[in-house]
Design a protein that fits this description.
Blueprint (H helix, E strand, L loop, with lengths): L10 E4 L15 H6 L1 H7 L3 E4 L3 E2 L11 E5 L6 H13 L3 E6 L9 H6 L13 E2 L19 E4 L4 E4 L14 H15 L5 E4 L20 H11 L7 E5 L5 H8 L8 E3 L22 H14 L7 E2 L9 H4 L7 H13 L4 E5 L20 H12 L4 H11 L36 H6 L4 H14 L1 H5 L1 E4 L7 E8 L2 E8 L5 E3 L8 E6 L5 E2 L4 E3 L4 E5 L2
Parallel strand pairs: 1-2, 1-13, 2-5, 5-9, 9-10, 10-11, 12-13
Antiparallel strand pairs: 3-4, 6-8, 7-8, 14-15, 15-16, 16-21, 17-20, 18-19, 18-21
The structure holds alpha-D-glucopyranose (GLC) and calcium ion.
């Protein structure tokens, strides 16, 4: 595979609303991000994926865009945005923009026009259908609960919204819509950005009348057109959010020969703690064997015809240390274990803000504390369907999106140093002990583990290019794999257990030099090796 900068990159996701407030209004902003660029440079990341900063009424916190070429007033101005790109570039950090083009806000000019009349020139930018027997056109559901069809009184038709009713879906079959999107993407490329993260991009080829949403027949045709018309000649990273991707589908997007995207986010591992065929809210415990099976399948299945994105976290998912680790007695150990396990795999790692200091889920006690539209809608729907408040809150505490959206804990001052005003969303009460300042000061912190992992990727081609092999003769709760490149082999071991576990792998030798670990450990002897709770390390086998 021809080497590109993003093959060896580490990306850091910023959710701007919660990153750093600079003017005391309680809302993170662009100037706040600029102030923290030195911190990100210290961490060593290559690029920032910036969650949406465009003009938006914030029905879904910026994923409902009313103007793609203007900055959200609370976040700053276009000059601030240009300054951010410039200041980041000075530190060799690229800015990757979130591209949300499956839908717009209902306050976007196109939709305001479209809903005026059936013959408005913008009508066909969206998806309208007549009622069927006085009811919705079909049974398509919104991800945020209820029907995906909303009736519009004025023109007597329904419009489609796969997310909130304030996020009407664009009609990608309309060539004019695609051209508007290409124009807008080129506007941002001309500003010198480093690429795009494409929101729910697998939905743009939908055929609503057949109730096909993901992976529609024209999806890849559209992406090839996008590549040709926009970023194809730019050296940028493009990553698609594709909930329904299998390895074969991922190759369609990311095989370099096909001229679509650099890589996709696949979510197979993310679904492992929900009951089969049910919602994300219907919980079941993680089976570590399944996690090993799924992640190692993705490590090997793409071969040279695609590229992986590696992630545990983002703004839609609970914090990994709370989800599958132990955020109380082993917060540091388990956070580092997840870092070591993921960052030495093949693919491009993504760190979600706060992950690098082991931030944890926020303990919600009452529905009034919620901000996220998805959780609030689900709460109301399930309450109406007879669930108890208590059981709904169990689901929300486990999976709600607000968990990852609380403000970054910079230090132990009031509001964790995020704002001098009132934060838009509660700060996690554990900010006195879990914060950036404390992490920077302690050479054994989670932050320094992430920093070292990023440096290892820069120094050792094996981390980027090495073949992956799962080691299977270990206990179920131990995740062990090998990386192999030229004449080198590394082994990575992670113990998901909270008990000591003894490994006997005499064939793997002894006196191996440790590359990185989350407990003190100098050499490794595989004849008999006692792993402590959540212990993880990498060693050179030869
Ligand atoms: C994606 C985003 C999520 C958003 C949704 C609708 O899944 O990551 O935050 O709510 O798309 O845009
Ligand atoms: Ca602010």
């Amino acid at each position: 595979m021809k080497s590109k900068w993003w093959h060896s990159a580490v990306i850091y996701q910023i959710y701007p609303r919660s990153f750093q407030d600079s003017n005391g209004d309680g809302i993170g902003d662009l100037k706040g991000i600029i102030r923290r660029l030195d911190y990100l440079e210290t961490l060593g990341i290559t690029a920032i994926w910036l969650s949406p900063v465009y003009q938006s009424p914030n029905d879904d916190n910026g994923y409902d865009i009313s103007d793609y070429q203007a900055i959200m007033t609370e976040f700053g101005t276009m000059e601030d945005m240009e300054e951010l790109i410039h200041e980041a570039n000075l530190r060799n950090i690229k800015i990757i923009m979130d591209l949300v083009v499956n839908h717009t806000s209902d306050e976007h000019r196109w939709f305001i026009e479209a809903r005026k009349s059936k013959d408005n020139p913008y009508r066909d930018y969206y998806i309208w259908r007549d009622p069927v027997e006085g009811d919705v056109p079909n049974s398509l559901r919104s991800t945020f609960s209820g029907s995906a069809w909303e009736f519009d009184e004025q023109t007597g038709q329904y419009f489609l919204h796969l997310f909130s009713k304030r996020q009407p879906d664009l009609n990608w079959e309309n060539e004019k819509v695609r051209q508007e999107v290409w124009k807008m993407m080129n506007f941002w490329l001309d500003k010198g950005i480093g690429g795009f993260r494409m929101d729910v991009i697998d939905l743009v080829g939908k055929i609503p009348d057949e109730e096909i949403t993901g992976n529609g027949p024209k999806l890849h045709e559209y992406l090839q057109e996008m590549n040709r018309e926009t970023f194809g000649n730019h050296d940028v990273l493009t990553v698609g959010e594709t909930w329904g991707a299998t390895p074969d589908i991922a190759k369609l997007y990311s095989d370099p020969k096909r001229n679509e995207l650099s890589m996709v986010f696949q979510f197979e591992h993310v679904g492992l703690d929900q009951q089969d065929g049910k919602d994300k809210w219907d919980l079941k415990p993680l089976d570590i064997q399944e996690l090993k099976r799924v992640l190692s399948k993705w490590q090997t299945a793409l071969g040279n015809e695609g590229w992986n994105s590696l992630f545990w976290n983002n703004h839609d998912l609970p914090r990994i240390v709370s989800r599958w680790g132990n955020d109380k007695s082993y917060q540091v150990e388990s956070a580092k274990m997840f870092a070591i396990l993921l960052h030495l795999m093949k693919g491009t790692p993504y760190i979600y803000q706060g992950e690098e200091i082991g931030m944890t889920n926020y303990p919600v006690q009452d529905v009034s504390e919620l901000n996220d539209i998805e959780s609030i809608n689900m709460y109301n729907e399930r309450l109406a369907n007879g669930y108890s408040k208590e059981e709904i809150l169990v689901s929300i505490n486990a999976k709600g999106r607000d968990n990852a959206r609380t403000p970054i804990q910079w230090d132990d001052s009031e509001n964790g140093g995020f704002t001098t005003g009132t934060p838009w969303l509660h700060v996690n009460p554990n900010y006195k002990s879990i914060n950036v300042q404390a992490n920077l000061a302690n050479p054994n912190s989670i932050f320094h583990c992430y920093r070292k992992l990023i440096q290892l990727r820069k120094d050792h081609p094996i981390v980027i290019w090495g073949d992956f092999e799962l080691v299977t003769d270990v206990p179920d709760h131990v995740f062990m794999y090998l990386r192999q490149y030229e004449n080198q082999t590394w082994a990575v071991v992670a113990n998901f257990g909270e008990e000591e576990t003894v490994l006997h792998l005499p064939d793997r030798g002894q006196n191996h030099e440790v590359i990185i670990s989350n407990y003190e450990r100098e050499t490794v002897d595989f004849h008999s090796l006692t792993l402590r709770p959540y212990e993880a390390f990498a060693v050179k086998l030869g």
